[in-house]
Specification:
- The chain is an all-alpha fold.
- It starts with a helix and ends with a helix.
- The relative contact order is 0.24.
- Helix 2 packs antiparallel against helix 6 and helix 6 runs antiparallel to helix 9.
- It has 9 helices and no strands.
- The chain has one domain.
């Protein structure tokens, strides 16, 4: 019972690191990578996090409430992001870390979801773990892409290590603490809102500003389509 979630957590860690290292190796193609990443982030929000939140909600939360939580996540993240960008007292290098930190927190929550799901039921654990694995490669890509977009390869490497460690740490936390299952759906919805902001308001504009040709838009659409296919297979 304990071994299975740890194995999945380790696999999620390796998948995240693989995605990030691949992105570092292909950093000369950062514009197209950013375009695909934008689509992937939006696809994770729309095709993975929101449906997962609705599934977890069962009879505890109304779908309209989950949409409100998603709006809350988007709004709070937007407020923090814009406040940081206009805070003259805040070192500019700190602002680079907000989005990667959010993705790392999401990876930690993914791992906790695996651990908690295995506490509830083995079948539920497998389903959650497979859903997490489907987008962990993208998590590594997204983390590195955001840092490279801010022209900080050093930050990319550091956040990749942290994001890679987050899933297995999350699994261990999920196995050791009792998080009310009823709170998982709102947390998923909040992260969906955050991902919508990162994808639509950060990655899409950055990729398009660097290369406004049609291929960048097609790359973003391909990223969304990829996540639709991957999450459909997983579920």
């Amino acid at each position: 019972m304990t071994l299975e979630p740890i194995v999945f957590g380790t696999a999620a860690t390796l998948s995240t690191l693989a995605g990030g290292l691949l992105t570092l190796r292909l950093s000369h193609r950062i514009v197209l990578i950013l375009g695909v990443t934008a689509g992937v982030v939006l696809g994770v929000a729309v095709f993975d996090l929101l449906p997962e939140a609705i599934t977890l909600a069962r009879d505890l939360w109304h779908p309209r409430s989950l949409v409100a939580f998603a709006a809350l996540g988007l709004g709070v993240y937007m407020l923090v992001d814009r406040t940081m960008h206009h805070a003259a007292w805040l070192p500019a290098r700190w602002r680079v870390h907000l989005a990667p930190a959010t993705l790392t927190l999401h990876s930690l929550m993914d791992g906790m979801g695996i651990g908690i799901a295995f506490q509830i039921d083995t079948r539920a654990g497998w389903l959650v773990a497979l859903a997490v694995l489907t987008h962990d490669l993208a998590d590594g890509v997204n983390t590195v892409s955001l840092c490279l977009a801010a022209k900080s390869e050093e930050a990319a490497r550091r956040w990749l290590v942290l994001n890679g460690a987050a899933p297995i740490l999350g699994v261990l936390l999920g196995l050791s603490i009792a998080v009310p299952p009823g709170m998982l759906a709102p947390l998923m919805a909040v992260f969906a809102g955050v991902f919508l902001y990162i994808g639509a308001c950060e990655l899409l504009p950055r990729s398009y500003a660097r290369d406004p040709r049609l291929r960048t838009t097609l790359a973003s659409l391909a990223g969304m389509a990829l996540m639709f296919v991957v999450t459909s297979i997983a579920h």
